Amino acid sequence: MKKVIFLAVMISLLSGTIVAYEWEIEVVDPDMINQYRHYISLALDNFNLPHIAYFIGRPSGGIPPSILRYAFWNGTDWEISMVDDESNSGNFAGETCSLALDSDRRPHISYLATDEDNTYCLKYALWTGAYWDFQVVDYESGRVGEFNSLKLDSLGYPHISYYDYYGDYLKYASWNGETWEIEIVSNGLAWGTSLDLDSLDYPCIAYYGDGNNLNYVHWNGTSWDFYNVDNFGGNVGSIDISLKLDSQDYPHITYYMFNQTLRYARWDGSDWIITTVTGNYGGAYSWLALDNQDFPHIVYYQALGYNWNVWYKYWDGSSWHNEVVNQPLGGGWNCRIALDSQEYPRIAYYNQNNVDLEYASPIIFGIEDDITTSIDNTSVILNNYPNPFNPETTISFNLTAKNAKDAKIEIYNIKGQKIKSFVISQSSLVNGQGSVVWNGTDDDGNDVSSGIYFYCLKSDNIVKVRKAILIK
Q1: Residue 192 to residues 41, 47, 243, 257: CA-CA distances in angstroms?
Q2: Four-way CATH pick for 377-470: 2.60.40.4070, 1.25.10.10, 3.40.50.10800, 2.170.150.70
Q3: Which one-letter DSSP state was computed for residue 447?
């Protein structure tokens, strides 16, 4: 497993605040040699641990290996399993896929596949805890499930919107506890589709329709209500589309235009508000998440010459902010975003330069301090084990004699509030190596809650920050 720190820790001395910011990039699966088409779906469980479903297939000039895989971060390493492998049968599995997690953290995956008769079908897989349970949701003589989007309702039942390519239908399937109920939502083109469920578990779907229009449809309890969101002279509709419902069940949609721009549309209760988020060949393979204030967070590729960068963009209530997650990638397929419980972005994407699946998570926080000296982190090692942890974790570090002056380890919660401090004496170091044990309590001895914490190594010329996850 390879880890890359893309951005170093940055220090701002304005208003006496230290701001630490770095992207940690993990290589999830490097076993993608000579592949050029990959679909990815990302979800976070209730411990903020990432789960990824992804397709490996179609090497240039070769036979599709057609493998659907699933990766899960166990807190220490990535566990990778084979969901469906049709590489030896001449069929394929997983070309487009969508992942959701139930309350027991079990993955549910919908995906395009072929059956034993080489007939295209929409399949569904559920991890039972011991094995993958497979079902064929829908099959046709044509290409059904070309694009699909999966969500789980309040009972944990799956709902899937998908495109029947040769039938030219937008379809919707829902599990009632015993069987799949399938209906045609719309006749005509439904290139791309994204599903979300409202507070009543009613389905809402965004899709590209006939005439290169962006359309939105939702079930009102008795029938489907249709809206045309954007047509822009027939210039709408390419690659991914992403729909999320906000706290009022209002839809927010990101979508890519044929003129290589990324757009964002939201319903304000009476009309669609449409914004061009970025141009200049930006916005391919975009994906959307909403925070607790219903502000959008978007990940997307942007092409600069023959290089593709992964960008993260978010709205703070008054303006858009851009961050480069990784560059240059040389192209790729899919990138996905999810927000953790503290509203930090987690991003999965395919890196064509390295030919691997990668996962990026940032460390971003602010803490009050009065340090104004220079920062030198180049030779400092800081980590903790185990991570995630319960009931305690050992924080290890190294310090030279020069750096050990007035050294301490401080622990902060996600709001930037200091909750624990350890003073490090030079006499406690052995060849510059030292460690402290944190048992999940604050300075008053009170147990702290489960969640993300930051531990910070400080001396008169050192600031080094890492992240720890406490699970109870």
Answers
A1: 15, 31, 11, 13
A2: 2.60.40.4070
A3: B
User: Could you tell me the residue ranges of all domains in the chain?
Assistant: 3-366, 377-470
Mean pLDDT of 199-209: 95
As a whole number, mean pLDDT of residues 451-467 equals 79
**What was the pLDDT predicted at 15?**
33
Query: What integer best gives the mean pLDDT of the chain?
Result: 82
Q: Which residue has the tokens 């001449």?
A: 90
3-366 in CATH: which number? 2.120.10.70
Specify the amino acid at residue 234.
G
Q: pTM for the whole thing?
A: 0.75
Report pLDDT digits (tens) over 340-395.
987 889 999 988 777 788 999 876 544 444 333 333 444 567 889 998 899 999 99
DSSP class per residue in 55-113: EEEEETTS----EEEEEEE-SSSEEEEEEEE-TTTT--EEEEEEEEE-TT--EEEEEEE
Q: Which long-range contacts (CB under 8 A, 24 or more apart) does 368-371 make?
A: 368/16, 368/17, 368/18, 368/416, 369/16, 369/17, 369/18, 369/458, 370/16, 371/18, 371/458, 371/463
